[in-house]
Sequence to fold (440 residues):
Amino acid sequence: MVCGAFAAGGAGFTSAKPVWPAGREQEKNLLVGFRAAVDAPPNGSVTLRVAAASIYRAWVNGEFVGHGPARGPHGWFRVDEWDLSGHVHPGRNLVAIEVAGYNVNSFYLANHSSFVQAEVVSNGSILAATGGTGSRFEAAILTERLQKVERYSYQRPFSEVYRLKPGWDAWRRDASIRIARVDCADQPGVNLLPRRIPYPDFAGRRPLALVSEGTLTPDVAPAKIWRSRGLVEVGKALSGYPENEIERLPSRELQYFAPAGNRRLDQNLAGPAQFKFSPNSYRIFDFGTNLTGFPGATLTCASASRVYFLFDEILTDGDVNFKRLSAVNVIAYDLQPGSYHVEAIEPYTMRYLKVLVAGGECSVDGIYLREYVNPDVHNAHFASADPRLNRLFVAGRETFRQNAVDIFMDCPHRERAGWLCDSYFTARVEPRLSGRNVIE
Fold:
C-alpha cells in the first residue's frame, strides 16, 4: 500500500503509516523518540525512508545519519531516503529518530499537526516501520529538551533548553536500554512528494581560534531586562507559551551576569582541544567565517553545572551579543555530574561561539559545528588577479550554500523563510554554481 499521493517518478512508503503519541499531535514543542532494532542482511543496501512534521534527526547505533525534512508546499511532505549501508554492521542494529513537533506558526516551518512516517527497507523487504509489516518502531517522550520555553525568534519556533542526566542518550545507542514506551495512534494520511534535491552536506567544522576568555559576576540586576519579540508577542497571532508558563528563560538569566574580567588572546587552534572552565567563566571561539549548522561538543562536569552556548555572526565590542538580531542566540544545558556529548537539533548561523559555564566546574572538549548546507556548489570556479574579487566569489558561494539547503531562503538563521523576492535572485545563482536548477 502506498500512503498518500506521490508525484511521478517518486517512490512512497511500502508499509509505514503516519503516527504520533496518542492524543498529543497538537501539543506544542514535544520531542519524541522512535526506535527499532533491525537485522542487517549480509548483502544489499539498507535504506531509511522518513517524512515528518515538524523536524527530525536520524541515528544508527548512536551515529548521526541525517536531519530533515526537506520542506515542501503547504499540505505536502517530502520523503527523505537515507542510505544506511555505511552505518549498519552485520547483525542487530538500532535505528533511532528524534522528532520535534512544534505546532506553532512560523516563517520557517508550516504549522501542521505532528507525525512521523518511517520505514527501514532492504532488498524489497520491510525491516521496520511505523505501522504495517516489519518490526514496529517503539516510541517514548524525550523530556531532556524542555517543552515550555520561549521561541527562538518571532519568525522561528522554540529555542533549545536541555536538562540532562548521565545516559540520557543511551536509548538511541543501545537497544537493551528500556524506554518509557508510549502508545502511538495512526494520524490522517498526508500528501507525499519525493525529495528531488541533493542531501545536505554535514561536514564537521572546528573553531580556528580562541578569541578571548574571561569571568563574570552572577546575580547582578541589569538596568533594564531585554525581552524578545518572540516572547512578548505570544498571543492570538503568534503561537507559543506565555511567559508565565515558561519553565526556563535563559535569555533573562544571562542578563544577570556582569563582566568581571576579560583577556584577549587571538590564539590559533590547530585541532580539537579541551578547555577547563571554572564557575562563572567563559571563552569565545572563532570559526573563521559564518557557518550554518548544529553546534556540538563534549561536556564533562564534576558537579552540577549550567552551560550556555551563545553565538553570533560578529563581535560587538569584543563580545558575543546573543540579542543583536532580536533572536535568542542561546542553547542552554543543565547538567548533572558526568560526561555528555551534545549537539543542537536546530540549525543556527554563527562565526563566534561563546561558551559560558555557571555553577560547577566543567571541561569542554572537541567543539565543532556540523554543517547543514547545499553540497551542489562546486561546479563553478573563479580566479582573477584581484584578490578582492576572489573573496567576493567565495563569499557569494558560501552565502548560497547556506541559504539553499532545501528551498531558497532569505537568511539561514533568524527566519529561514522562503521569501519569493529573495528566491528571484538566488534562483539565478543555482545553475551557475551547480549546472542545474533542481531547487528552483
